[in-house]
Amino acid sequence: MIINEKQQPNDPIVGCEYVFPCDIDSEMRIGSNKISVTLVTGKVWHPVYFTPGSAQLTTQESMPSSGRLIESKFEMKIPGGSAELLAELNRICGRSIVLKLTFESGCAIICGGKNRKLRLLTSATLSTQKGNVLGFEYKSTKDFMWLNQ
């Protein structure tokens, strides 16, 4: 199942959490589109606060001559500019991470993984407002996996 705005129009993203790939002990596929993730003992998902309603995930599928290609873009607005927030952003941006995005319905997807590299990008300002924009772009031949909860 491909995740896109047409299939999830009334199910906004309400949660974002991350771990580093080394924090994952194991991943187990369940069917073609679900995955179970077990973290290393003592590791936990780290929540990322964002402005409610600002998280957007778009996914587009194309069929170039080389085969199926899925291009995903994610962006969310993070308010504020405290030293603690900037340190957190510096800690995760530009590194491989794993994101768990939770929808209002309670369903969640995993972006990236133990062996699926995902890097976050950040910009320092959004328009004239103070804050940050956190986002990623991901290209793959495979869809994001639904988290088996």
Short description:
The protein has 149 residues and is mainly β. It has one helix and eleven strands. The strands form two sheets. The protein has a seven-stranded mixed sheet with strand order 2-3-11-8-7-1-4, with no helix packed on it.
What does this protein structure show overall?
The chain is mainly beta and 149 residues long. The protein has one domain. It has one helix at residues 83-92, and strands at residues 13-19, 24-30, 34-39, 46-47, 56-62, 69-79, 98-103, 108-111, 121-123, 131-140, 145-147. The strands form two sheets. It has a seven-stranded mixed beta sheet with strand order 2-3-11-8-7-1-4, with no helix packed on it. It is globular.
Which of globular, elongated, flat, extended, rod-shaped describes the shape?
globular
Strand order in the sheet with the most strands:
2-3-11-8-7-1-4
* Tally of contiguous helical segments: 1
Low-confidence stretches: 1-7, 124-128
* Overall pLDDT score: 81
For the termini, the CA-CA separation is: 17 Å
Share in helix: under 10%
Strand tally: 11
Described by strand count, sense and barrel closure, the largest sheet is: 7 strands, mixed
Query: Which percent band covers the strand fraction?
Result: 35-45%
Task: Supply the helix-strand structural class.
Answer: mainly beta
Order of helices and strands: EEEEEEHEEEEE
Q: How many independent structural domains?
A: 1
Radius of gyration: 15 Å
Q: How would you classify the quaternary structure?
A: single chain
